[in-house]
Amino acid sequence: MVNSGRLDYWLLFAVLTLLTIGVVMVYSASGFMAQTKYNDQLLFFKKQLVWLLVALPFFILATKLNYQIYRKLALPALVFGFILLGVVLFLPATKGVHRWIRLGPLGIQASEVFKYALILFLADSLSRKLEKIRKFKHLLFPYLVILVLLLALILLEPDLGSAMLISSIFLTILFVAKARLLHLASFLLPGLAGFSLLVFGLGYEKDRIVDYLNGLENPLKGSYHLSQSVISLGNGGFHGVGLGEGRQKFLFLPEPHTDFIFATIGEEGGFVWLAAILLLFMVIAWRGIAIAAKAPDYFGFLLASGISLAIFSSALLNIGVVTGMLPTTGIPLPFLSYGGSSLFLSLAAAGIVLNISKAKKSDWE
C-alpha cells in the first residue's frame, strides 16, 4: 500500500475552513474594540489578513518542499528557539509577562517558535537513535537537559500554559518514539512535584490556580475572564445570536479576538459552530495520525505526529480554558485566534504535514 502522491484533501479542507472562520471571526470579535480604542474598526482584521497573505505562500511552499530538507535545520532551530526564550526575558513586559518580541508592528511569541523548533529537533534526533531511546542514558542527555532548561526559561516569563503544553508534547513524542513508560515517569513525577512546590509553596501563579479551583465549583466565581467567557457561551445557546450580534465583545469579554475567540464564536454561532470547530480539529488529528502512519521514514512519522499533536493539543488547551475546564493561559487557538506568529507557524507546520502526506510508503518499520 502506498500514499497516492497527492495532498491529503481532508486535512487541507479542515485547515482552510478554520482559516476562513478565523478571519471572519477576528473581524466580528475585534471591530467594536478597534473602533473604540484605535478609531479603526478594521484594524485587527486588516492585520490578520496581511499575516494570512504573508503566510499562505510559505504554506504552499511547505507542501511542495521535500520534508527531508528540514533535518539540516533541526539543531539550528532548537538553538534559535532557546535564544528567543532567553532574549524575551530581557525585553519590556507586555501585560506583566515577558512573552513577546516586538519588531516594529510585528510581534513574535517566543514559546510558539520554540514549540515547533523542539518538534523538529525531536523528530530528527529520535529518528537517528531508534531503539537506543529505550535505554535511560540516552534519555538523560540531551532530552532531560533540554526539558529542564526549557521549563526554567518559560516559567520565568511567566507562561504556565506554554510550559504545560510544550512539556506534554515533549513527553508524548518520546512515548511515541518508544521510550519506556518507567523512564518517562522519572521525568514526569519530579516535574509534578516541582510544579506543586512552585505553586503552593512559593506562590508561583497561585492566584490563577485558585481562580481555576473556584471556577470548578461555579464558573461565575472564577476569574473575570472565565466569568465573561461562560456568559458568552451561555448567551449563544444552541444556534447562537447571529454573526456580528454578540454583546460580550463590547468590552466585557477580555481578548475576544485572541485567547477567548472561541467564546465569541460560541455566542454568535452557538453550539452548532463550536461543534463544527471541534470536529475540524478532530479531522486534523485524525489525518495527522493517518499521515504519520504512512510516512516513508521514521523522521516523517515523528514530525507528522508531533505537529498534529501540537495543533490539536493547543486547540484543546485553549478550549479547556475558555470553558473553565483548565486554568487561564495565554495559548492561542490555532488558525482562529488573532496573532501573526501563531497563524504563520501553524500554517507552515500544517503545510509540512501535507507534504509528508504525498510521500511514498516504505518499510521503515
Structural features, described:
This protein has 365 residues and is mainly alpha-helical. It has helices at residues 9-38, 43-64, 74-87, 110-129, 136-156, 160-176, 181-201, 206-217, 224-236, 261-293, 298-322, 340-357; strands at 100-103, 106-109. It is built from twelve helices and two strands. Strand 1 (100-103) and strand 2 form a beta hairpin. The two termini are 14 Å apart. The mean pLDDT is 86. Helix 1 (9-38) runs antiparallel to helix 10, helix 4 packs antiparallel against helix 11 (298-322) and helix 9 packs across helix 10 (261-293). It has one domain (9-357). It is globular. A two-stranded antiparallel sheet has the order 1-2.
